[in-house]
Amino acid sequence: MKFEGIITPIITPFHRDEEQHINYEATKQLIDHLIAKGVKGIFILGSNGEFHVIDEAEKIEFAEKVIAMVDHRVPVYVGTGACSTRETIRLSKKMEKLGADALSVITPYFLTPTEEELVQHFTAVAESVNIPIILYNIPKATGCNLSAAVVSR
Predict the structure, then answer these.
(1) Is 102:96 a contact under the CB 8 Å cutoff?
(2) Helix 85-98 × helix 56-70 angle, to 10°
(3) Would you say 12 and 49 are in contact if contact means Cβ atoms under 8 Å apart?
(4) Does residue 57 contact residue 21 with C-beta atoms inside 8 Å?
(5) Residues near 55 by beta carbon (within 8 Å), at least 6 away in sequence
(6) Helix, strand or coil for residue 12?
(7) Of 67, 66, 127, nearest to 92 (Cα)?
(8) Is there a contact between 109 and 137 (Cβ–Cβ < 8 Å)?
(9) How are beta strands 76-79 and 102-106 bridged, if at all?
(10) Taking the mean position of all CA atoms in its chain, how far away is CA 136?
(11) Is the dihedral of CA 40, 138, 110, 117 positive or negative?
């Protein structure tokens, strides 16, 4: 896969109902609009995609529907990061099976792993799937920064 152009991280649209169900009509409109405007990738379930407030079943359903909506017009990048390596791997495998083109993996949050632990975490995730992973560094939100040395390894 060639990473190029604008890869747009999208919000996860919600209905304003009591249960805050995901609004798939708005999702389709957003995706179609962005692709028509020339984006080269759709990135779901990142920080702007509210991954931290969506449970695993909702993430899987959302990814499945988005992958179908995109229908191979551009690559779909799916955020699968979690606090634990085990949870990240479990979700990453599920997203790969659904047809994600690549994964975005945030650093573990609410803890401060060492550089060696970060290398082990990302290596284990990468070895668990057959699609590319992108290291997602957002230290302001996670309290953990990816150093150049970790990324290089």
Answers:
(1) no
(2) 30
(3) yes
(4) no
(5) none
(6) coil
(7) 127
(8) no
(9) parallel
(10) 9
(11) positive
Instruction: Give this prediction's pTM.
Output: 0.93
Structure tokens at 107: 């650093």
Say if CB 13 and CB 22 are below 8 A apart: yes
Residue 19 neighbours by CB under 8 Å, 6+ apart: none
CA dihedral for 119, 122, 125, 126, sign (positive or negative): negative
pLDDT digits (tens, 9 = 90+) for 83-139: 899 999 999 999 999 999 999 999 988 888 999 999 999 999 999 999 999 998 888
Which residue has 């690549």 as its token pair?
Answer: 102
Map tokens 């699968």 to a residue.
80
**Rounded Cα–Cα distance for residues 75 and 120 (Å):** 27
